[in-house]
């Protein structure tokens, strides 16, 4: 069985071939399946049932997360008597199989029958787990995408046919067109939300208001950081008498964790583990956390996610209308145009950065210089990998222009990690835990590290892509302006003039190598890192640095010339010499 990994297929794959379930599930020595208590169940008893072949293993994290979802669906369907799940284990030993299977209410291929398990793997082309193949009563494959379908739709997708999934998608589309707060928040078994003190509040009391649907996980740090800010904005808006409410859509599996986080908040929530939570996550195409969807007074979606806007602008983002967001964009543009080094690095008494041994360097001493803000952390492998390249560029630039500096802005988790990482850097830093880091992260929308922001002598932002620029061009790109990058681009194009567009070389005899722009690569000839130009084979992902490719081409041509007409009356083609 292939290694673990969640399925990433959204379409339904069907097959008209009918599989005989007896020959599919049995062997020459076995005509039964097993339950987790050891009972044997005749395969013949599955006749006229829909079957789900569940390829899974105890060592696979995505499998362990999906199995409880499948158990819930199975238990709801079990009373129908026309559906069965069969576990096809990918475990490597019987003890692991038994421990995992003990939690499953369905049947399994015996662990001892590895031949049948391997045959099923091969027959259904299982390339990753969890994987679930759905067969109808005739043994035809209804879908080999059962994991995705069940995860998205649960029991609503039964009997998991292509037509049923199409019907569900059509219903969702119709619901979007006729969306109201009730259609979003009310389910067949619930017409209320809950407050932090446990009271049930009818959804009807929220109608006509602007409502924020807050998708969150209390255990997720980004949510943990944002939730207090959102609660503060909510309290300010309520104090001003604004007609605004928040409904938490908890994605927690643990009820205790939810209760602990929710009890101090002032808004409403759906009950933890309510089926609507996952359904709404799918409906609003949730891709990131935290997400705050804004529903207008008319029940229509006003904004798909205002978490970042609230993080940056607080109550000013209200009432979250397109007009307000246009105003905020104009404010942001004006702020950027007025930006100075002091406006981004000075906050009250915090008007300095530090050098070695904690020496304080006033921000005013850096005004007029080219500055790189280096967002990084010791625990981050890409940060550690980039550091030597940045240090090399730093030393080369400083040797030519002393009006240049780098400021390390740390995301390290403790003072010791910060000290260790900073000790190897030749530049300046914000002190560890400095509150200015949060402001800078908001200003430059830092969503990942390492990030390198170039600030020009005027204090305005030159580029947020300085890391990529240095990775490709190094110190030559200084001062990282558009003008300098255009000069480099012209030099790059000039460099390749006269080079052949294609080469056929012995180093890669399978295909021609084509001259191509390649950002960063490892040369398959010399093993060194290459940039910008490569002689490349897309089919084989084969790179040759131009110096390696052109050198081999020259040597091959020289050899060929040396072999031309080596003796009067003979002709050589590179492989054999023939008598004329």
From TrEMBL:
Reactions performed catalytically: [protein]-dithiol + NAD(+) = [protein]-disulfide + NADH + H(+); [protein]-dithiol + NADP(+) = [protein]-disulfide + NADPH + H(+)
Keywords: NAD, Oxidoreductase, Repeat
Gene3D superfamilies attached to this UniProt entry: Glutaredoxin
EC number from the UniProt entry: 1.8.1.8
Residue intervals of the Thioredoxin domain: 12-170, 330-497
Residues annotated as transmembrane: none
UniProt-recorded Gene Ontology molecular function terms: thioredoxin-disulfide reductase (NADPH) activity
CDD domains xrefs: TryX_like_TryX_NRX
Family matches, as Pfam families: C1_2, Thioredoxin_8
Family to which this protein belongs: Belongs to the nucleoredoxin family.
PANTHER family (UniProt xref): THIOREDOXIN (PTHR13871), THIOREDOXIN DOMAIN-CONTAINING PROTEIN (PTHR13871:SF96)
Name of protein: protein-disulfide reductase
The species this protein was found in: Quercus rubra
Upper taxonomic lineage: Eukaryota, Viridiplantae, Streptophyta, Embryophyta, Tracheophyta
